[in-house]
Amino acid sequence: MHRLPGRWSVWRCTCATHTTAPMPTDPALYYPTEYYAYAAPPTPRRSPLLRWLYRRGYAPKLVGLSTRVLYGPGPTPAYRPHGRILDVGCGNGTWLMKMAALGWEVAGVEPGLQAAQAAQAAGLAVQHGTLETVDYAPGSFDVVRIWHVLEHVPQPLATLRQAYRLLKPGGQLIIGVPNIGGWLARLAGPFWFDLDVPRHVWHWTPQPLAVLVERAGLRIERLRHGYYGSYSALRSLMYWTERHDAADHSRRTRWQQRLIWLRRQKVLAPLHGLFGLLEWNNYIELTAVKPQ
Fold first, then answer.
1. Please, where are the H alpha helices in the chain?
2. For residue 209, how many other CB atoms are within 10 A of its CB?
3. What single-letter DSSP state applies at residue 48?
4. What angle do CA 183, 87, 75 make, to 5 degrees?
5. Predicted local confidence at residue 130, as pLDDT
6. Are 109 and 103 in contact (CB under 8 A)?
7. What pTM, to 2 d.p., does this model score?
């Protein structure tokens, strides 16, 4: 695959689930040593007014939009006094620090040793391991977040069932994954940035994901598409331009520099918008609850 050794296929099951074949024994071997999640997490921007509004439940739509701008993409859980959040595959803990700034008690699980150590060095309660190996009591958390992680785990149903076990009754599960059924995936084909084989071993569309969540015992609250800008479209374009230059690192670097320059030019905002339209349904966001 792009910039990685080896060849893989993506198989589509009759149930509409897509899998990478052969499935790698250890996807962690395919991450670069300079991977962004290994760095120290940045200090989150703090807004006393936003935190005050958020904790009192005022203007949820405005606060939700603001928290996306300040604290990153994806659903922001409603505040619960003394609430506990578990972030599965938390990386260096960037999102956990942002949720702590809003008043949550936070914890994380991270399979990558370097990333877990970076989070721990920042003072976060992060355990090195997987959701199946960590030691938490049943019903420990109000929110479990599995954000762009479910495509990496070898047994996603087992992961979801463990999330169910760790949630309190009425607790919320938040999931984000790339959408292999989206416009950009269909247009880019093997050059789709979020295909990311062999690190992504599962490739989701909304219906199979929803079925799996319900099999784990959770009730779906909301299923929608997520939009995070034009990054994936531009990276997919870069992969396409490199299709004949796999061995020429200098040409790859030049194309990367050109696309980075393109992203930074404000005068090309309409072109950014066009690429952004391709990403309108590039991601799936799902929220579910554990029945009372």
1. 48-56, 60-71, 94-101, 113-121, 156-166, 183-188, 206-215, 231-241, 249-264, 269-278
2. 23
3. H
4. 45
5. 94
6. no
7. 0.86
